[in-house]
Amino acid sequence: MGDLRSLDRQHPVVRLTPMESAVGSLVVAGTVRAVWEGPGYSTGSISSGEFEPENLDGVLVSTPGNRPLVGYEGDLALVPLRHVRKLRRALFFPKPKQPMSVGLYNGKSVTIPAKAGQRSFYVLSVIRIGDVLELRAEELPYGMEFQTIWEAFGFHMTTRLPYQGR
Question: What pTM does this model have?
Fold first, then answer.
């Protein structure tokens, strides 16, 4: 991340180094919901706070460490980077009129401002390109619903089928 402090109109994109993309967890503060796409294009979305099945849309992608690929620990969204190759992309929604911040293992962080303009805000898009992550501040107009936003980014929730044992 170097000396970059904020993702905004002047600096909307930052690409992490291979080390920053692989060690520790990507910690995103100031969010209310996360959406992800994992292996096999499986998708899911969960709201912040403790995990409750009713807060989950789509499917949860687990890692070999039995942690979710994208999940929450209290109000912090976490992406365990040891398993970053399972992540295709993710989207993080801010708390209303509050900034988001992204932190890494090495103490570096970047902030996404609460407002993009008079009538717009930012969501944080995380995309895996090869073995590195790219963080993007994506500007959107106020008033859009979560589902409308994630569909605009091409996310369609994976349907969970009921178990039909033999």
Answer: 0.91
